[in-house]
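Troubleshooting: if your tokenizer reports a length mismatch, compare your output against this known-good record of 215 residues.
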Amino acid sequence: MKGKIDRKQIIDGAIVLLEEIGIQDLSMRKLAEQLNVRASSLYWHVKNRSELLELLADRIIQDISIPEAGYPWDVQLQMIATDYRKVLLAYRDSTEILSLTPPATTNRVRLIESIYRIFANAHVSHKLIPSCASLYNNYVLSFVKDEIRLSQTNVNGMKENEEEKNIYFQSKLEEDFPFFIELNKYFHMRDSDEEFQFGLNILLEGFRNKVGKDL
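Known-good structure output:
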């Protein structure tokens, strides 16, 4: 890719490199090598790594679909959250990138504006809308972050000694922690899709209790 390069090519290249090496090793130098250009060519379009991460975050958020206003407000929020989770799972280190960058780029502001508007149209008190939106966003980000962590734990073989640990727990802790022993089996039977919707439904029910109330 010798010669001219534009910002879109830089972001597309960064997405590919992110998938290969992860956020910790992502650098302007490695991106320049990936794109086969001089680092100075990148700095003409992106001033530093921090701005690159902001652009990556904005690119990730771009893939989230905003439902039509004809749906009920709570259904709209459910649809956005479901798509939000799907998008986050599609990009390596997505939750970390979003956590490290301010929501001040076009697509991120557009998402926030859409969520604010949904709450406003549901007659949630304006002073509560930012708090509701923050809870909503944090739920999705936190769930996906934990979901990824657990999947990586399983891939890395951290559960190989699970049977031995269960024997230890049952022999050493059953008397003092009966619920921990009894319910531990259900922890490993959880379905991520069902659990995500379960938590989301509880959150939406809480929001429904605030509709039309100035608290």
